[in-house]
Specification:
Elements: H1 7-25, H2 34-49, E1 56-61, E2 64-70, H3 83-95, E3 103-107, H4 113-121, E4 126-129, E5 134-137
Parallel strand pairs: 3-4
Antiparallel strand pairs: 1-2, 1-3, 4-5
Bound molecules: zinc ion (ZN).
Length: 142
């Protein structure tokens, strides 16, 4: 007689079996966000490699990456050069507009008050953070 599977093993098996269904119905918070999350974390790695703070971000419009954000607080000696701010600045410059309606900002960590306020001022539609793309709400000026 074998021991019943542990709760952890059951949970892992359920996650594997249910993942396609979760993706199909959009139930997973990370559904469709994987490559943007990966890109944000790649930018975090770039920041670390440059000797900066471990933060990365990416600004996405219409399903395409418009700007990478790599923390430059240390390398630029700029207290406002957070990864999210870098992505917002670069996106505005590239798109030639200050209105980023319809765009999403992905960060490796939850946006700080400065970055969230800047995203709100830029009318970014959604903020996501972390490896599981948590959040998804419009930014607020907090
Ligand atoms: Zn910030």
């Amino acid at each position: 007689m074998s021991a019943p599977p542990s709760r952890g093993r059951l949970r892992a098996a359920a996650a594997i079996l249910l993942a396609p269904l979760a993706r199909a119905v959009g139930a997973s918070p990370a559904a469709g966000h994987e490559r943007f999350v990966a890109r944000a974390f790649a930018n975090r790695d770039r920041a670390i490699a440059a000797g900066d703070q471990a933060y990365g971000a990416v600004l996405v419009c219409d399903g395409e990456v418009v700007a990478d954000g790599v923390s430059a607080v240390v390398t630029n000696a700029d207290p406002m050069a957070h990864a999210e701010m870098q992505a917002l600045r670069l996106a505005m410059a590239r798109l030639g507009r200050r209105d980023l309606s319809g765009c999403a900002l992905y960060g490796t960590s939850r946006a700080c008050a400065m970055c969230e306020s800047a995203a709100a001022a830029a009318k970014v539609s959604r903020l996501y953070h972390g490896r599981d793309a948590a959040g998804g709400q419009p930014p607020s000026a907090r």
